[in-house]
Amino acid sequence: MTVKIDEFRGVYLRESDFREKKVLYNEWNPKARNAWDTGVAIGRYLAGLKAGTLTGVRCHRCRRTVIPPRNFCEWCFRPMDDWVALPDTGTVNTFSLCYVTWDMRYLTDPEIPAVIDIDGTRPAVGIMHMLSEVQPDDVQIGMRVKAVWKPAGEREGSILDIRYFKPL
Fold it and tell me: What's the angle, vertex CA 8, arms to CA 7 and CA 13, rounded to 5?
């Protein structure tokens, strides 16, 4: 059977086709709501932040302790389910002096983002956060710092529940 393409040629719709209800259509405003599932590891980490604690996880095979927690070890691919409470102290691994914000505002006094190796992690594992209560010239790699938390009633289960890290 041979089919000619001209037999299935489309027909353009006109505005009058809609007005005269020759075409079936529907209009609605969908209420599309999204939710994000943090998963077991990050969910427990965020719950710990809301409670004012840093939560890590340990791999028994590799002897690693990491933060933020993950479900499996990237080195040996074994499950990581030995949850550990970590201190809210650490060591500045690296830092930057930022005179321009993410939204391109110029600053007179710089923001100081830093990677802070959290005490109790093995090998040392860091999280990125802000430093404060320190002059830019006084920040050093290797500087000991401690988390400054929001009051308990203001915490939401976010990394921002830690306001910043300050020198010890």
Answer: 125
The pair of three-digit structure tokens given for residue 123, joined into one six-digit string: 């090998």
Burial of 75 from C-beta contacts in 10 A (0-12 / 13-18 / 19+):
exposed
Strand ranges of the sheet holding 64-66, from the earlier edge strand across to the other edge: 64-66, 54-59, 82-86
Distances (CA, A) of 64 to 34, 81, 88, 106: 35, 12, 18, 41
Query: Which stretches of the chain drop beneath a pLDDT of 50?
Result: none
CB contact at 8 A, 83 and 55: yes
Name the residue among 90, 88, 76, 74 with its Cα closest to residue 41: 74
Q: Are 82 and 70 in contact (CB under 8 A)?
A: no
Tokens 């990237």 belong to residue: 74
For the stretch 80-126, pLDDT in tens is 989 999 999 999 999 999 999 888 899 999 999 999 999 999 999 99
SS3 call for 66 = strand
Amino acid symbol at 154: E
